[in-house]
## 1
Amino acid sequence: MQNRLTSIVLLLGLLAAVVYSVVTLDQSISSDRTDKADTRAFNLNGAGRADNRAIEYQAYEPVTSRPLQNTAKQDQELTPALPIVIQLKGIEVSAGAAKCLLESAGILGEFEVGDLLYDRPIQLLDILSNSVILGFENHTYEIVLSGPNLLEQALPQTHSELLGMPVDKIGNRPQIVEHFVQLTPTPFIADGMLASPGINPDLFAQAGLKEDDVITTINGKSVTLADEFEELQRTMRYADTLVITAMRKGRVITLYLDIPSEALTLKRQ
């Protein structure tokens, strides 16, 4: 009997020792895993914070690019490209005033510092002697004058003299609206003018215009707003394309007349 009790006690002791060893080993493994997990979490969090700081710094770091007619001189990853291509056609700087002549998609416009360009969030920040500075999404872009300064060239003639130009002198390059179309107010459309052939009727036909068309805009300028129409008359002589929006039998049509070529495409909306 005593031998049996002794065997049971020894067996229980051995079992207790095995259990203790297993528990101790499991705690050691768990602790090691926790330490490694904490280390990985620290490394990941630390790296994440470093990346966030870098991204934030890059996003707000002032980056100045100097594209020539929007060619890619900037780092595309840091500085976004302008949403439209803008070309500088002329600069005029006088005492206390400056303006520039810009072109985008064949549409010319005169702009001053502070203006937004072509209904986009692109602002004209500065006008220099041979370039302009534009701002877009916290970045700056310098557009350089690459051709002749059209605003420095003396106007060849007054408006009255241009009205008296013969057809052969006008050719296929109209310098004022009247060279290709005569505009007459119409009571039917408040923001449009009735079209009829101008001094050179061939240009009217080449533009795809028909009598009784009602023109609303030319090169993005309203034909019924005096200030926009005056700007159109000043800048049309520099244009490479005339973009004409008109109403024809209740439908909107857009005509593109390349100057001085006679190429034309018609797009219906």
## 2
Amino acid sequence: MPSKPAPWFVTRGAPISCVPSSSRSFVRSFIHSFIHSCVSPLHAGLLSAATLAALLLCTSGFPSTDSPDGDPSGEGGDTEWPPDELKTVLRALLGATERHRKEFEDEFQNTVRYDFLDNYRIPSLPALCPFSNFSKEACFIRLLRGLHVYSVLLKYVAQEFPGSFVPTQARHYVGLLITEIEKKMRDPEQVSGLTSSQKEQLLRDVDIADTFHRKMTAHSILYTFHYFLIRGKRVINKSEKPRRGMISKGVAPGQRL
């Protein structure tokens, strides 16, 4: 008797587009719920970049609509095989920072607009990667320096919001993202971590006596961090478009058409 074919949900290598449309919403919801539960403070060490790549691959291809521009990744549903671990971690980190928006709106119940946080100016925040005249390597350098800064500031945010998982999850992904960026840089040693005095200065810059403004400053850090990540992903994607075009035409990078 011929063996029955494996069901769609266990078919090795089957893309999410092969999943019946009636089941896709459930599959995506289940996988994201699993990921988010694993990166709670009790399980933050369970998911490596490779594990995230395997899980999030199952949800690639779905359009996202929960970012400032309709997509938390900043680029829409780009699908890659094999998955790029750097972008997989970046997507997960953006998912964490995007959840901050809902927490903010739930807290203020529409009495304060989310974009009001743009009015808070915090000294020493890292600059965004510019869109033009900027190489991918230069963007990696700026991202890496910025991640070291935000890693310190996220400690401050965690102190202000002890009941929120967002800063804890974000710091976990920041560590993974730093590792993945260093793997792709030609000379990662040119960017070093912050010294103790630099970290202390960062925390002094946000040390405000007023309780309300301390909380709004913490909200603003997560707000600006989200847009810092979006810009970085867009610049990286923009720098890779010519290479993707050559690959789609069967031309290896470095060869002429």
